[in-house]
Design brief:
The complex is a heterodimer of chains A (335) and B (533).
Chain A: H1 2-13, H2 20-31, E1 35-39, E2 50-55, E3 61-65, E4 76-78, E5 84-93, E6 98-103, E7 125-130, E8 143-154, E9 157-158, E10 170-174, E11 186-188, E12 194-198, E13 202-204, E14 210-216, H3 221-229, E15 247-249, E16 262-265, H4 270-274, E17 281-285, E18 288-289, H5 293-300, E19 308-315, E20 318-325
Antiparallel strand pairs in A: 1-2, 1-4, 2-3, 3-6, 4-5, 5-6, 7-8, 7-11, 8-10, 9-13, 10-14, 11-12, 12-14, 13-14, 15-16, 17-18, 17-19, 19-20
Chain B: H1 2-14, H2 18-39, E1 43-48, E2 54-59, E3 65-68, H3 70-73, E4 78-82, E5 88-97, E6 102-108, E7 129-134, E8 146-159, E9 169-175, E10 187-190, E11 195-202, E12 215-219, H4 220-231, E13 239-240, E14 243-250, E15 253-261, H5 266-270, E16 277-281, E17 284-285, H6 289-297, E18 304-313, E19 316-325, E20 327-328, H7 334-338, H8 344-360, E21 369-372, E22 375-378, E23 383-387, E24 390-395, E25 401-402, H9 407-410, H10 413-430, E26 438-448, E27 451-460, E28 463-470, E29 476-483, E30 488-495, E31 498-500, E32 503-505, E33 508-513, E34 516-525, H11 528-532
Antiparallel strand pairs in B: 1-2, 1-4, 2-3, 3-6, 4-5, 5-6, 7-8, 7-10, 8-9, 9-12, 10-11, 11-12, 13-20, 14-15, 16-17, 16-18, 18-19, 21-22, 21-34, 22-23, 23-24, 24-25, 26-27, 27-28, 28-29, 29-30, 30-33, 31-32, 33-34
Classes of the chains: A alpha+beta (335), B alpha+beta (533).
């Protein structure tokens, strides 16, 4: 039944006259030349030494998901006709864990046109195109999965079993599965336009389920811009330190990480202005659950002076939502 | 969800733009439902006799032949198959292809069984609809299959096997259609309900042993190559040159060269040497080592292929095309293999069925003679051999040569001697009477002029002959016999099959002796009247 709904939506968005089968077939066919297979460094635990990148610029600029396998002098991109080309990282977006590479050799390269900002609609058809399980070699075509743009959301995700938190911004979720090797591939609509770049398979910390997601292409525009201009790094984050909140949590031993109880609130600080009190238990920072002091402090570092942060706190038996507007840190900061 | 759909339909119908699109969508949906309803009765739930596990299967003929995975049947000789009619049938494992992960079952029960037609898996393109049916997680206690829908996510994939050349998926179909444990052996249909593959394996990643949107089906075009062998009850092996190739980067691109081979391999015996470039295989250019591996592994042992090679010697390039009969890739030890026995009763049954069908195809028995450019034949009585338009000899159906006139001048003796015999063979076959064939036995498959054939050995007019019938249409394509009289194998190739008098008969016959064409005649007419004249 879900499929029936899907078909309806798909047809409405697709050119009306075309037979439904041909739409997907043609989009895949048109998109293949812009999706390249990557071969990089190997030998890192169970991490694959292969991946995918999507060409976004005629000069050979392609986007891919950050991976250890990219960190090598011998990174190679295999174009749709089987040609092997050298490639190197030219710009990074560490927050989104995305990387721009430049593929050597004469252009112009085929590339995908992005959708207009804000155009993505939950429920629309999407294709994810990537070299899942390294099934394709040489001029063989990467794998294609069809599904829905299931949600546009922010997620509390992690990679594998390590508790390393990742991007907290907006992502596209899809049921067009992403698998090992497809990260860095393309999420396209039925007009063959690029919605986003596929991320790695991530696990939801809340449900332990694995999700397939893409980073919206509009959020990657600055990365493409820097890659084209040859500016490898964004304005250094250190130059823009985290904003001040004024919350002093309880601290026990060095290694223990207890729940985020408030020990003290600095007078006149954003936290004080928001009405935070001693002994409040901080549950969530924005959408992210913070089970420990460490998680709380790490999460707060993402926000800068002027940013708004909604904290969910437990005071006695009630749960409150308090809005803080961070200000500029003072000398010495708060740690 | 049904309510949601209705609501969304109503909402969509309300907007002006949705009108034609909605209609098209509803029509497409209705068509899909029709396709599924048509295919579904032929899809079975396959169980082991002892109840230990199972999978899926699909009926491909009204006699009850069904395909499933070899990893579903294992070493069993009998299975149970539940059909959507709610009944559980006994099924014999007839033939197995352990390397291609295919087993052919024969269901026992009331015929005709519902069945689906074989499609053409090479026509699939990425993005085509792919419908899977089967029994995932063994859900179907009432034997009604689960249906899943997705797209073709990749074509011409190669999936390496396990163990001793088992379960290799060459040139297979990749789908994002949900395939789960229990779907094994079930059918993959294209959007129009044509059987294009048998679902058999999935890629698994961090999500564990269930669908991750990357499933694989054995292509029906590969299975088609093995069907005659399977119907003949055999354990079949896949073909090999006993040589491997690898891709080599060159300045101008890439070339594929032979890098390893056995000294006594069919490749070496045919004259291939290490370092030779593989240029064409089986009539098409080779696009790389993977392409070659894909294309050779879908062929059975014993098939003849043409291999085009290029060798550079003293700065000069030599190109040649070699004809090679493929050796077999062993998938098991002899003792393992003996566990699969050919059931003689089945072979007798299947041979009779094939001959009945194929000979009936020649049309009613009254068509007992024909006239061609060089010969005039009647089923009974002498055949008249003409040269330059004049009757110079007559030959009895026993092949005995009765000399008259200047026949020896007109025809070389050897050719003239065969002509009557060959004409008589044809006439006997054209009678459409299976009884004219003695001790007939289906022995397996082969390929003639790109067509897969059933090979039947039989006695005809006192001699052992080998008959090759097109496996799909039933057309007789070749008759060959080895006789002492001619000191070699005589091959009569029949072609240009066309409808005539309620049947289909060949209109050209070519006789090869010692590899040389000694007779090549067009048959002008098959009518009795013509023959009587």
């Amino acid at each position: 039944m879900r499929l029936a709904v899907v078909v309806l939506l798909g047809l409405l968005l697709a050119p009306v006259a075309a037979e439904e089968r041909d739409v997907v077939r043609e989009v895949a066919e048109r998109s293949f030349p812009s999706v390249v297979k990557l071969h990089g460094a190997s030998g890192f635990a169970r991490l694959p030494s292969y991946g995918t990148a999507v060409l976004v610029h005629p000069d050979g600029i392609a986007l891919t998901a950050r991976s250890v396998m990219l960190e090598t002098e011998s990174l190679r991109a295999v174009l749709h006709d089987g040609t092997r080309r050298k490639a190197r990282i030219v710009a990074r977006d560490d927050e989104r864990e995305m990387v721009a590479i430049r593929i050597e050799g004469p252009g112009p390269f085929p590339h995908l046109k992005p959708i207009e900002p804000g155009e993505a609609r939950v429920g629309q058809w999407v294709l994810s195109i990537g070299n899942a399980f390294r099934l394709a070699d040489g001029d063989e075509r990467p794998s294609v999965n069809l599904g829905l743009l299931a949600a546009v959301t922010r997620l509390d995700l992690r990679l594998g079993l390590s508790d390393r938190t990742v991007y907290r911004g907006r992502v596209y979720l899809t049921d067009a599965n992403v698998n090992p090797g497809s990260a860095g591939g393309a999420m396209v609509d039925l007009d063959g336009r690029l919605l986003g770049v596929l991320g790695r398979v991530l696990e939801s910390r809340a449900t332990r389920t694995l999700v397939s997601h893409a980073i919206p292409i509009e959020d990657l525009a600055p990365l493409i811009d820097r890659a084209v201009k040859g500016e490898p790094h964004e304005a250094r984050r250190e130059e823009r330190p985290p904003g001040r909140h004024g919350i002093r949590p309880f601290r026990f031993g060095l290694h223990r990480s207890p729940p985020a109880y408030v020990d003290r609130v600095d007078g006149g600080s954003p936290a004080a202005k928001a009405g935070l009190r001693k002994n409040d238990l901080i549950l969530r920072v924005g959408e992210v659950t913070v089970p420990t002091i460490r998680a709380f402090l790490r999460e707060m570092k993402r926000f800068h002076a002027g940013d708004e942060v909604v904290l969910t706190v437990k005071r006695g038996t009630t749960v409150l939502k308090l809005k803080l507007v961070l200000d500029a840190p003072r000398k010495g900061g708060e740690r | 969800l049904r309510i949601l759909l209705t609501i969304s339909l109503v909402l969509l119908a309300g907007t002006a733009r949705a009108g034609p699109a909605l209609e098209a969508a509803l029509a497409a949906e209705a068509e899909r439902i029709r396709v599924i309803e048509r295919c579904l009765p032929a899809v079975g739930a396959v169980f082991r006799k002892d109840g230990g596990g199972g999978g899926s299967g699909v009926l491909i003929s009204p006699e009850g032949y069904a395909l499933t995975n070899q990893h579903v049947t294992g070493n069993a000789s009998e299975m149970r198959v539940g059909l959507p009619d709610g009944r559980l049938y006994r099924a014999t494992v007839i033939g197995v292809d352990p390397m291609g992960d295919i087993a052919l079952l024969r269901l026992h029960g009331e015929r005709p069984f519902p069945f689906v037609a074989l499609g053409d898996s090479d026509s699939l393109r990425v993005g085509d609809w792919a419908i899977a049916m089967g029994n995932p997680f063994l859900l179907a206690t009432d034997f009604r299959p689960t249906v899943t829908l997705g797209i073709v996510g990749g074509v011409h994939r190669f999936q390496p096997g396990r163990g001793a050349n088992r379960l290799v998926y060459p040139d297979c179909i990749q789908v994002d259609t949900p395939i789960n444990p229990g779907n094994s052996g079930g059918p993959l249909f294209d959007g129009r309900g044509r059987l294009v593959g048998i679902n058999g394996r999935i890629s698994v990643g961090p999500r564990g042993r269930n669908n991750v949107g990357v499933g694989f089906a054995v292509s029906i075009n590969q299975i088609r190559n093995f069907l005659p062998d399977l119907r003949a009850g055999r354990w079949v092996d896949h073909g090999t040159l006993d040589a491997t190739v690898r891709d080599e980067e060159t300045e101008g691109g890439r070339r594929t060269i032979f890098d390893r081979m056995y000294e006594d391999s069919v490749a070496a015996k045919a004259g291939i040497r290490l370092g030779d470039e593989l240029v064409t295989f089986d009539g098409r250019p080779v696009r790389g080592a993977n392409d070659f591996l894909n294309r050779i592994t879908v062929l059975p042992e014993g098939w003849q292929v043409e291999v085009g090679i290029r060798r550079v010697r003293d700065g000069k390039a030599i190109e040649k095309t070699l004809r090679i009969r493929l050796a077999g890739i062993p998938t098991a030890t002899e003792t393992d293999r003996k566990k699969h026995e050919i059931d003689p009763e089945h072979v007798t049954w299947e041979t009779a069925r094939l001959l009945r069908r194929n000979l009936a195809r020649w049309g009613p028995a009254k068509a007992d003679g024909y006239r061609g450019a060089g010969v005039e034949v009647k089923r009974t009585g002498p055949a008249l051999v003409r040269t330059r338009g004049e009757v110079v000899e007559s030959v009895g159906p026993d092949g005995a040569w009765r000399r008259r006139g200047d026949a020896r001048e007109a025809l070389p003796e050897l050719r003239a001697g065969r002509l009557g015999r060959d004409a008589a063979l044809l006439a006997a076959l054209a009678s459409g009477d299976p009884a004219s064939l003695g001790e007939a036995r289906l022995v397996g498959g082969d390929r003639i002029e790109g067509r897969v054939v059933d090979v039947v050995r039989a006695k005809l007019l006192g001699e052992e002959v080998v008959l090759s019938f097109d496996a799909e249409t039933g057309d007789l394509l070749r008759v060959s016999e080895t006789t002492e009289a001619t000191g070699g194998t005589v091959t009569i190739l029949l072609s240009d099959h066309r409808p005539v008098e309620g049947g289909v008969r060949p209109h050209r016959w070519t006789v090869r002796l010692h590899g040389r064409i000694v007779q090549d005649d067009r048959i002008e007419t098959w009518s009795i009247e013509e023959a009587k004249r």
